[in-house]
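Narrative summary of target 7.
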Amino acid sequence: MKPMLATAIANAPVGVSVHKTYKGRTVMPGFAKRSVKRRVRSAKDKGVVLADIGVLSEAYYVLTFVGLGTSRFQPQPWLVPAFRANKSQALASYRKSLQRRILNTAKKK
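Modeled conformation, tokenized:
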């Protein structure tokens, strides 16, 4: 997920003016780019690991209004292309990590 996160951050749009978030906080251009984060967690049954890349809730507008577009603005997708560009690399990395863990577990027994 690290390469995917790096590409998402690089592709994230940067505004040109100071603006307020829905919480009323004044933020500088680049707030959305700085809000791109990765979260990895285990499912409740401990058999599944989930990884998400997105933005902090206060920067949701960059996903909805910028990424999907509005009636006044053309969509500027940036997150989905980052995923697609790195999907095969992420799967290969996960496969390699899983094989290493299986071999290490087999050696212990």
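The mean pLDDT is 87.
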